[in-house]
Amino acid sequence: MRPFLCGVLFLFFTAVNGALLTADEGPVSFHRDVLPILRTNCIVCHRPGKPQGGLDLTTHAGLLAGGDEGPAIDAGDAAGSRLIATIDGDEPTMPKDGEPLLPEEIETLRRWIAQGALADEPASLFSLRPAEPPVYHSLPAVHALAFSPDGTLLAVPGRHEILLHHADGSGVASRLLGDSPRLESVVFSRDGTLLVGSGGAASEFGEIQIWDTAKREPVRSIKGSNDAFYGVSISPDNSQVAVGCADKLVRVFNVVDGIEVMRCDNHLDWVFGSAFTNDGLRLASVSRDKAAKLIDIATGHLVDDINRSRDPLVCLARHPIDDLIATGGTEGKIRLFRMEPRGGRLAEGDNKEESFVREFEHIGSPIQSVAFSPDGSAVACGVASGEVRIFKTENGQRLAQIKASHGPVFAVAFNADGDLIATGGQDGQIRFYKTSNGELVQEFPAVPQYRHTETP
């Protein structure tokens, strides 16, 4: 049982001219103060996909919209708001199967509603962007890699930054600082003019960073959700970006204004990858729920299930020319699928394999990342065992097998010429290998590493 004294300690009252005043009458922030309370106590039931009572409490808009029983709050009137009525009192009706909210939590919600139930943007209350590039006392794991199409740069996420290495591994060309403590994915646009990263802060916000590659300047930061974004992709015409989310949604945003233009809730677990079709009208996504799906961007509706449910999927790569995707998951097999509709939703018993092209050899360890060569002729994967394998796309023939003992490989990327493959993983080192035979060519740290020296 939660101690009542917590509430007593949180608030105290002072008599002034016979009136009782709360100790803190400052403005209450939705994202800083209110959303963490809802996340802890409410959104396990009231979230997108199948919100109980039709009520989604994961966003400010959802809270204002209310549910099947009407508005949840009446801005400016805390006492008359249904949200307060359900969580307060001697026998509160919500949370239905959990502990009652603490008195200070109820008071925070009450004050926020009384102050007008205003919204604020995630992470906009204060900038999380560091003034100076971070100093590293150890090497962070490498979760993503991307070579620029012109062959000059290698993008590597760090802490609160994207590091642009010279593609030959000779050093860092630029450091792009941003709000997200961690970026989960990076990708260059097809023409190389834009660099896009996705990530955020766990249980706080998701962010998409869009950078002008030539100027090394931010084009836009798009923040949303209450958890990190994964598997970012950019449309062929550079007009839209898509992400998978820890809240089980797939989202598409406009690059020009950052407005969310599509949201799909057909997945049942975290979504780790996204990929636009060549015409930019549809989007493929993969999730830990074992599903690969094809989504209509204009409506957000599911067009087709792409695969037959097998193993949780954690990575996706799009073929650079054809409407094909390669998926990887915990079973340890790359599978190739077409991104094209089949004329309708699946019927019960459908084997869901009409989009299937081929399956590559079993590796025996969960696949963490997949990537195509620039011409699409080869596909590579990095696995949890530390191994990397490269195959011919057309027939699945193995081209190279790289066995190493450096820990899990979380990221693989072909250089612009396709003759080298870069890997990154748990140990924070970037390694270049020849794609023809897997020979190690070069190794260097992903970030400038601080080296402590003892003073005699």
Question: How would you explain this protein's 3D organization?
Answer:
This protein is mainly β and 456 residues long. It folds into 2 domains: 25-114, no CATH class; 146-445, 7 Propeller (Methylamine Dehydrogenase, Chain H), CATH 2.130.10. The protein contains 5 helices and 29 strands. It has helices at 5-10, 30-41, 60-65, 82-87, 103-114, and strands at residues 13-16, 19-22, 146-147, 153-157, 159-166, 172-188, 194-201, 205-212, 217-224, 229-234, 240-245, 250-254, 260-264, 271-276, 282-287, 292-296, 302-305, 313-318, 324-329, 335-338, 356-359, 367-372, 378-383, 388-392, 398-402, 409-414, 420-425, 429-434, 440-445. A 7-stranded antiparallel beta sheet has the order 3-4-5-6-7-8-9, with no helix packed on it. A 4-stranded antiparallel beta sheet has the order 10-11-12-13, with no helix packed on it. A 4-stranded antiparallel beta sheet has the order 14-15-16-17, with no helix packed on it. Strand 22 and strand 23 (378-383) form a beta hairpin. Helix 2 (30-41) crosses helix 5 (103-114). The chain starts with a helix and ends in an 11-residue tail after the last strand. Mean pLDDT is 87; it is low at 1-23 and 452-456.
Helix content: under 10%
User: What's the CATH architecture of the largest domain?
Assistant: 7 Propeller
- Given as residue ranges, the uncertain stretches (5+ residues, pLDDT < 50) are 1-23, 452-456
Per CATH, the superfamily of the largest domain is YVTN repeat-like/Quinoprotein amine dehydrogenase
The dominant shape is globular
CATH topology of the largest domain: Methylamine Dehydrogenase, Chain H
Percent strand equals 35-45%
What is the count of distinct domains?
Answer: 2
Radius of gyration: 24 Å
Mean pLDDT: 87
The count of strands amounts to: 29
The level 1 CATH classification of the largest domain is Mainly Beta
Total of DSSP H or I helical runs spanning 4+ residues: 5
Could you give the distance between the termini?
55 Å
Characterize the largest beta sheet: strand count, sense, and whether it forms a barrel: 7 strands, antiparallel
Enumerate the strands of the largest sheet in spatial order, edge to edge or round the barrel: 3-4-5-6-7-8-9
Indicate the structural class: mainly beta
